[in-house]
Each structure stands twice: as structure tokens, then as C-alpha cells.
Amino acid sequence: MPTVVPSRNPLLPKRRRLSLAGQYLALQLLIVLAVLVGVIAISLLQSAATFERVEGRRALSAAENLAANPTVRALIPTAQPRHGAALPSLAESARTVSGSSIVELATARGIVLTSQNPLDIDLPLPLGRSDVLQGRSWTGTVEMDGDTVLVAHVPVLDDDGKTVGIVAVGREYPSLWQRLGDTVPDLLVYLGVSLALGAAGSLLLSRRVKRQTLGLEPEEIAGLVEHREAILHGVKEGVIALDQQERVTVANESAREFLGLPQECVGHTLDELGVDQHLRADLTTEQPDADRLVLAGERLLVLNRKPVSSRGKVIGSVTTLRDRTELSTLERELGRNRSATDTLRAQTHEFANQLHTISGLIQLGEFDEVVHFVDGVSRNGISDQITSRIKDPALAALLIAKNSLAGERNVELRLEPSSALGRVDEGLSLDLTTVAGNLVDNAVDAVASTRGATVVVTIVEDKEWVTVKVRDSGMGVETERIEDIFRRGYSTKTVAGEGAGEGGRGFGLALTRLVCRRRGGSVEVVNDHGAVFTATLRKSMTVSGAEWEGSGEE
Fold it and tell me: Which residues, 6 or more positions from 386, have their beta carbon under 8 angstroms from its beta carbon?
């Protein structure tokens, strides 16, 4: 059972780059810095909001107290800028007590009567968006002497509720650097803690990832994937990998072509891809022997399946596929030639014996016996019977050879006198030898153990079709197994090597059906005092609507 152990690819270029841990640390630092910038921005916004809320209430309270002072209410209606000391002293006292930086008193028209800055006296009070002139208190920011000031405006009312003056109490906004300086100590603590946690998290995460990637760095993993893809898709053999749920994890072009899978088959189960149940069983069950032969569509494939494990656990399987269709065709042609050779060799010995007999009769002067002997040989010769009815040399040679083999197993093989077949093209001849050879072998195997066994072959043709019928004197085929006998890999034979047929045991009838269907015909079996197999083949092949004249190849 192969175990997945990735290793560093020696072909990978050596480049000095950050390790996985270094990359994670750099990423964590960038994240920490980004978070820190965000925290600073939020802190500054929060400090500004807090300043406005706290100092605004404080300024408003101080302004309301000053506006309610009886002295201010009595003096402010008639007060003049730079005259009198009572209002300035009250304003300074309120500024000192409240801790404000600005306390100003103004007339009802907004002219400053008293201010901590003498230059502002007798000038208009900056109101901004204040609605204090409408008799309502207001808190907000205004620009005073080029600075932004948080100020509270409160109207001074007389006994009749009429606005007779304005009180402005405010405090200068702290600058950005002042607010930043207030938050720096906390930010440094946050930064130190974040860096420590980020570094520790990066190291732990990188160790975990490296354990999962078997110690490989990202560029090494990418190089291995590229190398694997180049090898996987560069080989002629088909390679398909499945996980424990029968999902396709890897499939190269050859495997997709052999199995008829779509381009986007990775990630789908064999059931979703519509793979034949018998082929699916071959791809998912343990394979005790190497080089299992399977039929996939019209292809004969050599299949080798191995489970794949990682860290002692089976995670799936990988299967290699080799197309043996062309090799099977060559084997059939070689078998046909071998049959013809064996037939000629047997006939050579037979003719030699007959010539020796004729020579002896002549030497004895038995001329009448010579004539009688020659006539008997010409009438009883099985070769003449076959060749007189079957004009195709390859098929005739096959039947002659099968007759000899059947005789060795005490089976009488006869050619029906009604048989007749003219010469056919090479492709049809090859297919006929495959069909007739498999059917005859199957029939001889079925009756070899019975006494008086016979196999009768009938081959006839018409304008469009050739029909091959093989009848045996056996027990026939069990009704429930009629369909099974045409399934690839199915065999009723128990003797090793017996009747293995084309491409291994259990493939003879499957290949026969395949050839017949490819020729637009069929093969059927019925029981009539034995099994009767009838195969029909069209003389001309039709593929996708375009006729082939019997090439016999896909």
C-alpha cells in the first residue's frame, strides 16, 4: 500500500525567501499596525467627544451661574466697554472658579463688554451658529483669535424675561498632538501586548501549518503541484484517484477519455458521473491480482488499483489504466495467423501420410485401390467441406483449426451444409473470426465433458448482414444467467485457463457482444436441446451517421 510522503523537489530553484513563520509574523505585524492605527483614530475621536461632553457641561453651568448673578443682571443693561470694574471682576472670578480659559460678557447686541483679552473688548462677540440672540442657551465650537474654542452661550434676562446681555464661557480645544500625547502611554502598552501576542500566534500557527504540510514551504508546495501536474498530464496511461467517498480527486486527460468522464469531473462521485456499476466496482474494490482486464465502453483496459494511505490511514485509492484495445486487435490477428499456421502444419502431416499410402499402393500394383483411396480423401476432407462453403481464408482457416482442437477434446464440430459466405473485407473478416472463435470455444467448453458431444456452426449472409449461429448439444444456459454471460468478467468455468477466451477469462462473450454492437448487430442465446448462440454483423460499419466499409477499428 503506497504511503504519501511528499519531499522537497530537488528541481526547485533555491531562493532566499521568508520562511512560513516569517511570513506569518510579517502579516501579523501588519495586522497589528493596522489595528493600532484604527485604535488611535478611534481614541482621538473618543477624546474629542469626551472633551465636548464634559467641558461643554462645565462651561454651560458656569455661564448659567454667571448669567443668573443679580449684579450682572443689574449692571449689564447700562454697562459700557472699558467702564466700571464690577463686571470684569465677576467675570474673572467665574473664570478662575470654573477653570475656563474664556469668560466674556457682551451686550444684547453682541458687543463685548469684558474679556480676559483686552483686544476683544468693544468688538462683536463671535457667535458662530449660536442661537443665543433668540434667548436660548447654546453650546458648540467657534473660531476665536484663530483658535477653535468650545464655548457655552447663555442669555442674561431681566425681570421681564427680556435679553439684556450675553455670557460666553469657553475653553480652547486641545490640539491633535496634545490629545495624541495623552493616549501615547496606553497605546504603547497596547502595541507591546499586541506584538507579543502576534509573534506567539504566528509561531504557533506556522508550526501547525508546517505539520499539516509536512514541513514544506509554500513555494515548495506550489512547485510540487506544478511538477505533479506536468507528470500527471504528460503520461499516456490514464490515472484516476478517488477518496473514501468515491469522489474523483485526480483524473488526467487519458483517464477521462478512457472512462468517458467530463472535463469537470474532479469533486464529483462516480455515481454522479454515471459510471457503469461494474466499472465502478473495479475502481473502488480491492484488486488481489495485477493487470485486471475490464471493458469500458468499446475499450479493453488494463486496470491496476492501489489504496493510498497517509500517516497510517487509508485516504483513498489511485488507479492506472492502459488501453489494450489495439493490442487485443493485434492478438486476434496473431491468433488468426497462428490458427492458419497450425492448420497448414496439421494438413502437411496428413497429406504426407496420404502420399505415403498412395506410394505404397502404387508399388504394390494396387492401382484400383489407389483410385478408390484418392476418391475417399477428396470426399471426406473437412478442409474441402469448409473451404467450399466459406470463401474467406481467415475464417475458413479458423474453423479448420477449431475442428482439430474440438477433435482432441472428443467434440464433433460440423459446418452446416446450408452455410455460405463469400470473400469479405479485412475488417469484417477480423470481426467474424473474433465472433466465431469465441462462440465455438464457448460451445466446445460447454460440451467437452459429455459423451457424443457435437457443435454445429452455421454461417450465412445476405446483401447487408452476416449471421453466425453456433449450436451445441449441452445442457443449455440457465435462464437467470442469460444476461450475465455477456457481462465482462463473468465466467462459469472453474478450470484455470480453460476457455479463457479473448483477453482473459469471462471476456469472450462480452467481446462478442461488443463487436456485434459495433457492427450494428447483436448476439442472442436461446435454449433448444442445448444452447444456440446467434450473432449478426452488418457488413458495413456505421459510425455517427458516416459509413465505414468494414475497417474493424474505432
Answer: 396, 399, 400, 403, 415
Q: What is the pLDDT of residue 52?
A: 78
Tell which CATH classification among 3.40.1280.10, 3.40.47.10, 1.20.1250.20, 3.30.450.20 matches the domain 18-231. 3.30.450.20
- For the domain with range 233-323, which CATH number is right: 3.30.450.20, 3.40.50.300, 3.90.220.20, 3.30.2320.80? 3.30.450.20
Range among 102-116, 134-148, 321-335, 353-367 rated most confident: 102-116
Homologous superfamily of 381-548? Histidine kinase-like ATPase, C-terminal domain (3.30.565.10)
CA 241 to CA 315: how far, in whole Å?
10
Kindly state the cell numbers that stand for 177.
Answer: 498632538
**Mean pLDDT estimate for the chain:** 77
Average pLDDT over every residue of 181-202:
72
Q: Is there a contact between 24 and 329 (Cβ–Cβ < 8 Å)?
A: no
What is the per-residue burial (b if ≥16 Cβ within 10 Å, else e) of 212-230?
eeeebbeebeebbeeeeee
Q: How far is 550 from 465, CA to CA, in rounded Å?
A: 12
Q: Please give the model's pTM, rounded to 2 decimal places.
A: 0.46
> Of 98-112, 154-168, 278-292, 468-482, which gets the smallest average pLDDT?
278-292
Specify the DSSP element, H or E, that contains 321.
strand 313-323
Kind of pairing, strands 292-296 and 299-310? antiparallel
